[in-house]
Design goal:
Helix content is 36%, strand content 14%. By secondary structure, the chain is α/β, with parallel strands linked by helices. It has a single domain, classed as Alpha-Beta Barrel (TIM Barrel), CATH 3.20.20.70. The strands form two sheets. The protein has an eight-stranded parallel barrel with strand order 1-2-3-4-5-6-8-9, surrounded by seven helices. A three-stranded antiparallel beta sheet has the order 7-11-10, with no helix packed on it. α9 links the parallel β8 and β9. α2 packs parallel to α5. The protein is globular, with a radius of gyration of 19 Å. It starts with 7 loop residues before the first strand and ends with a helix. Keywords: Detoxification, Flavoprotein, FMN, Monooxygenase, Oxidoreductase. This is Propionate 3-nitronate monooxygenase. InterPro entries: Aldolase_TIM (IPR013785), NMO (IPR004136). Belongs to the nitronate monooxygenase family. NMO class I subfamily.
């Protein structure tokens, strides 16, 4: 698998930022881009794979591992009621609680197998061993995202080809296997070092890599590659929502916080009105909470209202630049 990797990996960013153009541009710039299959239909994923595979030889696809129903359904129902003022604010209806959703997991695995996607990464847990075996038999290298040495040990049981060690600085969803306890307070260097003690497989470092010198430093610390997401949110080729671009380019000081308010899974985002109002109320419950807040977020996006958007961003968001992918790749290697 090491021959497939490049020093810089452009992270999969579900919900819009990751586009086929972003992945293609990453490959042309000497990096490795990942398509984000999360939230998309199998047909949309297949179309993106077909587009990318003809334009660059090295790329990957990220899949969400299906999660069990929320541990506390009553808490999800209470959160739905707490969201009523937001639904009224934006003139939308709250959907009924949806306890399960496998995000078309089996179909997306089949697509990756059919097209022999070079790299397939998983987030939100350990994928079924049958899926890993099918992908490896098709020639795909399999990566599993972890946030601790213990999670790495669990992931190794299904025999992946490598791991992604995600630190708490990373923007967007944490891949933690323990969402109730996750605080995002362990840095990528600590997580990387811990994961390297339990495996000789290649380990990609993710989180906090946008600062000058961070990528070379993590490579020197033993990472086989470094995955960067926030550094590419403002890339010309990214499909980032205009409201998020405006918020990140405003120049106004903004902190990031780990919150379950938008999806029920811990995720690092810019603090805004929605985060401040609902973080303390949101239970563990991905993807049930994601489906509850989706109409609110969609309405806010149509209005260009960043106050109710999930503005996923890592701790180094202030250093993100609007530029072509090639320029950003060069900058990260300095």
């Amino acid at each position: 698998m090491r021959d497939l990797l490049r020093p810089i990996v452009v992270a999969p960013m579900a919900g819009g930022p990751s586009t086929a153009d972003l992945v293609i541009a990453a490959g042309q710039a000497g990096a490795l881009g990942f398509l984000a299959a999360g939230y998309k239909t199998p047909e949309a994923v297949e179309a993106e794979v077909r587009s990318v595979r003809g334009a660059c030889s090295g790329y990957g696809v990220n899949l969400f591992v299906p999660l069990p129903p929320p541990p506390d359904v009553a808490a999800v129902e209470r959160y739905r009621e707490a969201l009523r003022p937001e639904a009224e604010r934006y003139g939308v209806d709250l959907p009924p609680v949806r306890l399960t959703d496998d995000d078309h997991f089996a179909s997306k695995v089949e697509i990756a197998v059919e097209y022999r996607v070079p790299l397939v990464s998983f987030t939100f847990g350990v994928p079924p061993v049958e899926a890993v075996r099918a992908l490896r038999a098709a020639g795909s290298a399999v990566l599993i995202t972890v946030t601790s040495g213990e999670e790495a040990r669990r992931a190794l049981a299904v025999e992946p080809d490598g791991l992604i060690a995600q630190g708490g600085e990373a923007g967007g969803h944490s891949a933690t296997f323990s969402p109730a306890a996750y605080r995002g307070d362990r840095g990528v260097r600590a997580v990387l070092a811990e994961v390297l003690t339990v495996t000789d497989l290649p380990v990609i470092a993710a989180g906090g890599a946008g600062a000058r010198g961070a990528v070379p430093g993590l490579l020197a610390a033993g990472a086989a590659a470094v995955q960067c997401g926030t550094a590419f949110v403002l890339a010309d080729e990214a499909g980032t929502r205009p409201a998020q671009r405006a918020a990140m380019l405003s120049g106004e000081p903004a902190e990031t916080v780990v919150t379950r308010a938008f999806t029920g899974q811990p995720a690092r985002a810019l603090r805004n009105r929605f985060v401040a109002a609902y973080s303390s109320l949101a239970p563990v419950g991905y993807p049930a909470i994601h489906h509850l807040t989706a109409p609110i977020r969609a309405a806010a996006a149509r209005l260009g209202d960043a106050s109710a958007l999930n503005l996923w961003a890592g701790v180094g968001h202030a250093g993100a630049h609007a530029a072509p992918v090639a320029t950003l790749v060069d900058r990260l290697q300095e």
